Amino acid sequence: MTNLSRKLLPSTSALAAFDSVARLGSFSTAADELSLTQGAISRQVSGLEEQLGVMLFDRTSRGVMLTPAGADFARAIAGALAQIRSASLHVMTKRHSDQLNLAILPTFGTRWLMPRIPQFVARHPEITLNFATRIGVFDFDRDGIDMAIHVGQPEWPGADCTFLMDEMVGPVCSPAFLESHPVNRPEDLMRLPLLHMASRPGAWKHWFESLHIASTAGEGMRFEQFGSVAQACIAGLGVALMPLFLIDTELASGQLVEAFPHQVVSPSAYYAVAPQAKSEFRPVVAFRAWLLEEVGRYRQEIVAW
Questions:
Q1: Domains in the chain: boundaries
Q2: 262 C-beta neighbours (distance < 10 Å), count
Q3: Do the domains spanning 112-165+273-304 and 167-268 agree at the CATH topology level?
Q4: CATH for 167-268?
Q5: In whole angstroms, what is the distance from residue 47 CA to residue 157 CA?
Q6: What pLDDT, in 10s, does the model give residues 179-227?
Q7: Whole-angstrom Cα distance, residue 228 to residue 251?
Q8: pTM, whole model, 2 decimals?
Q9: Distance between the two ends of the chain, CA-based, in angstroms?
Q10: CATH class of the domain comprising 3-94
Q11: How many degrees, rounded to 5, is the angle at CA 280 between CA 278 and CA 283?
């Protein structure tokens, strides 16, 4: 390594000492934070200034203040130090457990999956789950994701899709909305404001066609998440096609009711998706197997009802 290269790569001890003093504005407070003596902190900072050939602090009888160069340097290295700490924590954690970075759908994740997660954790305490929210197809490598719960079609380039379950959908609205907008036949829905999910643009057309009705319903409000659609229905903004298993609570409480008693299997289904390179990754294999067990148990519960 050349002398210039050495100058451009200060020790992490010196950078940590400088960062602490820059944030706290005091050598003594920085010493307490890093469990070092004040003299050790001062030597680290002085050595860094000498290495860079720049004064980073103005030292006065009232304390220390960052010079303009010091302020620029503090801002520049803060992110790098945070990344190093994060990477170190990740490596330290990974020594003791496997990591599964899992992308979940917002409503499915909170309503169906999350209440069941404690069973997986109890069975596989050695696997640490990290959750991220994603809608639609994304780049597994770029996002650092090992596995995803996907709704739609089993079409994901470079990935294996494992079928989990279909979803049954039906038109729902608030009781007050239905009282003021009676629906005696499915055609009556065409004159009402129909709410749409952005991820299911053909849902209403499919529902009407299942009744052999050519839908002429116009576009209405569009939403990204089912949670938002449910709230819009509760507020009386219209009628929405909802996966009924995701709104059990609202139906049971009477906040939502079926606008017309006709349910259909949605063209979209739920899949566990993993990139082919991670298909045999142990945490992926374990989670996929557990997930299929939970889906099987859930189907049996539905039949029992």
A1: 3-94, 112-165+273-304, 167-268
A2: 13
A3: yes
A4: 3.40.190.10
A5: 53
A6: 999 999 999 999 999 999 877 878 899 999 999 998 765 668 888 888 8
A7: 16
A8: 0.63
A9: 72
A10: mainly alpha
A11: 80
Query: Dihedral of the CA atoms 158, 164, 165, 167 (nearest 10)?
Result: -50
Class of domain 112-165+273-304: alpha beta
Contact assessment for residue 45 and residue 5, using Cβ atoms and an 8 Å cutoff: no
Using one digit for the tens of pLDDT, what is the confidence trace for 45-83? 999 999 989 999 998 877 789 999 999 999 999 888 888
b/e for 189-221, b at 16 or more Cβ within 10 A? beebbbbbbebbeebbebbbeeeebebebeebe
Pairwise CA distance, residues 255 & 258, whole Å: 11
Q: What CA–CA distances, in Å, run from 303 to 172, 291, 292, 297?
A: 22, 19, 17, 10
At 192, give phi and psi (nearest 5°): -105, 160
Q: Do 251 and 177 meet the contact criterion of CB atoms below 8 Å apart?
A: no
Q: Letter for the amino acid at 98?
A: D
Among candidate residues 230, 298, 246, 267, the one with its CA nearest the CA of residue 151 = 267
3-state SS string for 60-93: ECCEEEECHHHHHHHHHHHHHHHHHHHHHHHHHH
3-state class of 194 per DSSP? strand
| DSSP 8-class letter at 224 | S
